[in-house]
From TrEMBL, chains A, B:
<feature type="domain" description="Beta-ketoacyl-[acyl-carrier-protein] synthase III N-terminal">
    <location>
        <begin position="109"/>
        <end position="186"/>
    </location>
</feature>
<dbReference type="InterPro" id="IPR013751">
    <property type="entry name" value="ACP_syn_III_N"/>
</dbReference>
<keyword id="KW-0012">Acyltransferase</keyword>
<dbReference type="Pfam" id="PF08541">
    <property type="entry name" value="ACP_syn_III_C"/>
</dbReference>
<dbReference type="InterPro" id="IPR016039">
    <property type="entry name" value="Thiolase-like"/>
</dbReference>
<keyword id="KW-1133">Transmembrane helix</keyword>
<keyword id="KW-0808">Transferase</keyword>
<feature type="domain" description="Beta-ketoacyl-[acyl-carrier-protein] synthase III C-terminal">
    <location>
        <begin position="241"/>
        <end position="329"/>
    </location>
</feature>
<keyword id="KW-0812">Transmembrane</keyword>
<protein>
    <submittedName>
        <fullName>Beta-ketoacyl-ACP synthase III</fullName>
    </submittedName>
</protein>
<feature type="transmembrane region" description="Helical">
    <location>
        <begin position="310"/>
        <end position="327"/>
    </location>
</feature>
<dbReference type="Pfam" id="PF08545">
    <property type="entry name" value="ACP_syn_III"/>
</dbReference>
<dbReference type="InterPro" id="IPR013747">
    <property type="entry name" value="ACP_syn_III_C"/>
</dbReference>
<keyword id="KW-0472">Membrane</keyword>
Length: 329, 329
């Protein structure tokens, strides 16, 4: 049964500093054109002085304006990011503070399923909103990947960017809603994308020249793709079987912006034309959990989506997880 | 309306190593008896070789046995902890792997609201379970505080312990259910309990002798207590007003095991007798988000609770947040 939620507004923030493919080529010591050819990323943004909570709050303010509500209308603030600003407290509380809502009492907490964090938060919160626990929930994904990249691992370091995106997810008795959703986790692929350090297993106090790489992102792109590609057909069948719909009924597929080559293969596998498969990786890189909401936000801004359209959010994440949501916008 | 969920089973795991108050006195250079008098903690457990995912999986296995279901009956695995094993992937995926479910596809993700993570997960997942998205959800809190304590900050370091607790939360048409719940966050208190480092703001690569304390827990207990004590009456009124109940209808109050002195003041404020206010801090210390589920688990093991009893979960966390759930066991 469709969960009665509506994406009332969206907003984004990107850091001031644009980093183009040529700059990346220099960093990694390759000839000009190498990183763009390999990753499909023409440019991405890296933070200068911006913090995750600052970016998240800026994206949130835009989403609030877009939704035509006030800050005081919010009754829940959620951070749904693969990266955190600090170990304690949760990002959502830091975003609340940045929004000047420090005395409001609006509940704040975080979801984490790495690149799928936003999709998971949207999926799970739709039940609480449908049941009228909350009227207007702010879901923010604010990601700083640049600080944790391993520049000696070219395959991963050339892909990522920083940025934030926010949705206002609201209760609605209109046609809008989440029609179906599904998530699967195969931890046989847990080691395919990791930052092994930074938690209780390899605490920052163990940081040294020898352990430095444990605190940086480590990815085996080929293994991730192989496992997720194998699982995808059954996953999609399970997702669409909850509905009377097929992927051809989707006005737009909004995929996780993992890498251009992976996205191309998935698009062909789905049998979806380019104009119905939103790609922003060229201009933003992979912005971790902010990728899917940002691609959706850009599709709206570009006039590619209208109310009533059926949309598929589809992504993978460290875990390894696959997640999807079919919604009516 | 009561959400149709039932705590079908509970389980716990504590590390092999017991650390008594005398050992703590030696670590912090105080005379024997000082730390116990100050904190009320006679002993706590610290990990030796245990990881968070190992402890979480052990607690989960006990809960599954207690619930009389099989591993394969799980349809969602959630980690609800204030600490993480590693930065990527999420704890829940690592717990799935420890459980030997790496090929199962069971969805895995994390909630984080620091010490309230478990309460938040219970609260939010109750909507998805009530709406039949899931039948049996494993919620695990597995905490390793010992690695992040600042032994020069006596006020906080003498309080904490390590350990894990797990619930099987299941759909049920019986009387069991969540009757009411509430959460409030006041980020004016965000700086009262922090680990400033470890995220994107102060990345582990900035670790040095000078920055070392930024990677350890920093707490102003007096400020936390003052703010939460001020907010508590209105919070409780808002929580109980959703019901026809009062705190006197509760068979048992299960508070966050923040500190013995704070718990005593809260108990008196609530007007609840000692036998109806579960305290395990003497034997476990403050086990972060595992505190409330572990106190509940111990209350059941001690025969203090039976099906049909009304119970209040009540806690505070970094953020600063206050959270509460009224449920029928």
């Amino acid at each position: 049964m469709k969960r009665k939620v509506k994406i009332l507004g969206t907003g984004s923030y990107v850091p001031k500093r644009i980093v183009n493919a040529q700059e990346i080529d220099v960093i990694i010591g390759k000839t000009e054109g190498w990183s763009e050819k390999k990753s499909g990323v023409k440019q991405r943004y890296f933070v200068e002085d911006e913090t995750a909570s600052y970016m998240g709050a800026e994206a949130a303010k835009s989403a609030i304006e877009d939704a035509n509500i006030s800050l005081s209308d919010l009754d829940c603030i959620i951070s749904a990011s693969g990266t955190n600003e600090q170990a304690i407290p949760c990002n959502a509380a830091l975003i609340q503070k940045q929004l000047g809502l420090e005395g409001s009492g609006i509940p704040c907490f975080d979801f984490n399923s790495t690149c799928l964090s936003f999709v998971t938060a949207l999926d799970m919160m739709s039940y609480a909103i449908d049941q009228r626990r909350f009227q207007h929930v702010l879901i923010v994904s604010s990601e700083i990947s640049s600080v944790g990249l391993n520049w000696s691992q070219h395959e991963s370091s050339i892909l990522f960017g920083d940025g934030a995106c926010a949705f206002i997810l609201s209760h609605s008795n209109e046609a809008s809603g989440i029609i179906a959703s599904k998530m699967e986790t195969y931890s046989e692929g847990a080691i395919f994308s990791e930052i092994r350090g930074g938690g209780t297993k390899i605490h920052p106090k163990n940081y040294s020249e020898q352990s430095a790489n444990d605190f940086l992102f480590d990815m085996d792109g080929r293994a991730i793709f192989k496992l997720s590609y194998k699982k995808l057909p059954d996953f999609l069948e399970g997702l669409f079987n909850q509905t009377g719909l097929t992927v051809q009924d989707m006005q737009m597929v909004i995929p996780h912006q993992a890498s251009k080559s992976a996205m191309n293969i998935i698009r062909k596998k789905l049998g979806v034309k380019e104009e119905r498969f939103m790609s922003i990786i060229e201009n933003y890189g992979n912005v971790i959990a902010a990728s899917i909401p940002l691609a959706f936000h850009e599709a709206i801004r570009a006039g590619k989506l209208k109310r009533g359209d059926l949309i598929l959010f589809l992504g993978t994440s460290a875990g390894l997880s696959i997640g999807g949501i079919i919604l009516e916008y």
